[in-house]
Amino acid sequence: MSAQGPIGIIGGNGQLGGAIARGILMSGTVAPERLWISSRSGQAAGFDAWPGVRFTRDNGELSGACETVILSVPPANAKDIAITAPDRLVVSVMAGVTRADLARLTGAVRIVRAMSSPAAGEGLAYSPWVASEGVTEADRATVRAIFGACGVTDEIADEAHIDHFTAMTGPVPGFVALFADGMIRYAEGAGIAPDVAERAVRQLFLASGEVLGKGAETPAGQVRAMVDYAGTTAAGLVAMEKAGIARVIAEGLDAAVERARGISRE
Questions:
Q1: Is residue 254 situated within a structural domain?
Q2: Rounded CA separation 111/99 (Å)
Q3: DSSP 44-96
Q4: How close are the terminal C-alpha atoms of the chain, in Å?
């Protein structure tokens, strides 16, 4: 599915904005000449393959030319976006910036607040979003096309849940890398060569991601199946559960959610 009308990304030279831009360009969701990117420099690296992309320093020029405006600047800089877009579809991937904030900052009534991740550039992001009352079915189709090009997407009903998804799915590979690093350190402590340990753990997580992503069984079901098998992995899983790993993960995610809710207020 292709998006309707020109799309502009304010902050399209940043990690997340650039990833979304590459995701929609590589998928053909938007033609290069129908994509605008606004940045302080008026240019962005990594777009040599798409010479038709338009670059500007002027956010107002971008919002005037584009039917859909994606906001992807650091949350603390949201107040500096300086656009008036009452007749545009405004889509924000800025952490902690609410739909009410976005309406005040842009004058828009068709607002989508979303979260994505830099994995968008590889078509591997999970991008949930919530729409304001003014968003039309045509707008929804555009949003699905954009985030569908970046990976998997869902429209959700509760805006507060965007903060939870920011904590859970935004930090790629954040939490997974922390767990992987712990396993690598364990292997090194057992005398395994660091390069071998890292290669083994990287491959484990690559394979695990494929199995989790494509398998019919839920993660909880896979854990229970391993425990019921009563093998070596079961012993490790039982020990981790007794040690309270679920509680530790929840505490970490709670901290990330609180940070997401306050980051735009700094």
A1: yes
A2: 7
A3: -TT-TT-TT-EEES-HHHHHHH-SEEEE-S-GGGGGG-----TTSEEEE--TT
A4: 38
10 belongs to an annotated ligand binding site? yes
pLDDT in tens, the chain (266 residues): 566 789 999 999 899 999 999 999 999 999 999 999 998 887 777 899 999 999 999 999 999 999 999 999 999 999 999 899 999 999 999 999 999 999 999 999 999 999 999 999 999 999 999 999 999 999 999 999 999 999 999 999 999 999 999 999 887 788 999 999 999 999 999 999 999 999 999 999 999 999 998 888 999 999 999 999 999 999 999 999 999 999 999 999 999 999 988 886 66
* Whether residues 27 and 153 fall in one domain: yes
Within a domain: 168: no
Are residues 144 and 180 both part of a single domain?
A: no
Residue numbers of the domain that contains 152: 7-159
Is 13 annotated in some ligand binding site?
yes
Q: Please report whether residue 48 resides in a domain.
A: yes
Tokens linked to 192: 């395994």
Residue 235: left if φ>0, alpha if ψ -120 to 50, beta else—which one? alpha
Residue 166 within a domain: no
The annotation status of 15 as a binding-site residue, yes or no, is yes
Domains in the chain: how many in total?
2
Given a contact cutoff of 8 angstroms between Cβ atoms, the answer to whether 261 and 166 are in contact is: no
**11 a known binding residue?**
yes
102 annotated to a ligand binding site: no
**Looking at the structure, do residues 41 and 119 belong to the same domain, yes or no?**
yes
Report yes or no: 67 and 145 within 8 Å, Cβ to Cβ.
no
59 is in an annotated binding site: yes
Instruction: Identify the bridge partners of residue 68 per DSSP, sorted by sequence position.
Output: 7, 89
39 is in an annotated binding site: yes
